[in-house]
Amino acid sequence: MAEPHRYELDPEHTTVAFFVSHIGFADTLGIFTKVTGSFSYDMDTQALSDALVTIETPSVESFNAARDNHVRSKDFLDAKSHPTMTFRANAGEPSGPTHGTVTGELTLRGKTIPITLDVTLNRAEKYPFGHGRFVLGISARATLKRSDFRMTYAVENGLVGDEVKIMIETEAMRME
């Protein structure tokens, strides 16, 4: 039996993105450019533990400066008062050799809400070049409601959707 290993998210190969409806015409894409995190994972048992991901809210980027400043404002992320959001996992449940869910708590704007991520393990092996460390390639998806985090600007009139689709793509490197 193998033991759990500690992994850290590779900041150069980690993307946390979201889509939210804009007036019902199209979804707007946003990403967070500053993300750190780590977790313990046992390849044999698929047990996940001690997972914490921190996202710097001022790092939001939607490819439009005026919109980015608005998203950082009190109407949305309130990045000055809440410069980070965190996800702390408390359980993982495999549904197959490469799929499962991870449940935890997302803290955003000072409010903590349970959230479940649908997770896929894309690849697990030694990196083929560069650092040469053992890497887990992971995709995760979730949906949340802005209003659960007291982010109600433009929800009632439908100008900005309440539902936010979250996409996470990461390469997590084993810490030696």
Summary tags:
mainly beta; 62% strand; 176 residues
In whole angstroms, how far apart are the ends?
18 Å
Radius of gyration: 17 Å
Number of extended strands? 10
Mean pLDDT: 96
Strand proportion, as a percent range, falls in over 45%
Secondary-structure element sequence?
Answer: EEEEEHEEEEE
In the predicted model, the low-confidence regions spanning at least 5 consecutive residues are none
Main sheet, how many strands, which sense, barrel?
8 strands, antiparallel, barrel
Structural class: mainly beta
Oligomer: single chain
Query: Share of helix among residues?
Result: under 10%
What strand line-up does the widest sheet have? 1-3-4-6-7-8-9-10
Overall geometry comes to elongated
Structure overview:
With 176 residues, this protein is mostly beta strands. The chain contains one helix and ten strands, in the order βββββαβββββ. The protein has one helix at 65-72; strands at 5-22, 26-32, 35-42, 47-56, 60-61, 84-94, 99-108, 111-126, 134-145, 160-174. An eight-stranded antiparallel barrel has the order 1-3-4-6-7-8-9-10. β7 (99-108) and β8 (111-126) form a beta hairpin. It is elongated and about 55 Å long. The two termini are 18 Å apart.
Compact description:
The protein is mostly beta strands and 176 residues long. It is built from one helix and ten strands, in the order βββββαβββββ.
Summarize the topology.
Blueprint: E1 5-22, E2 26-32, E3 35-42, E4 47-56, E5 60-61, H1 65-72, E6 84-94, E7 99-108, E8 111-126, E9 134-145, E10 160-174
Antiparallel strand pairs: 1-2, 1-3, 1-10, 2-5, 3-4, 4-6, 6-7, 7-8, 8-9, 9-10
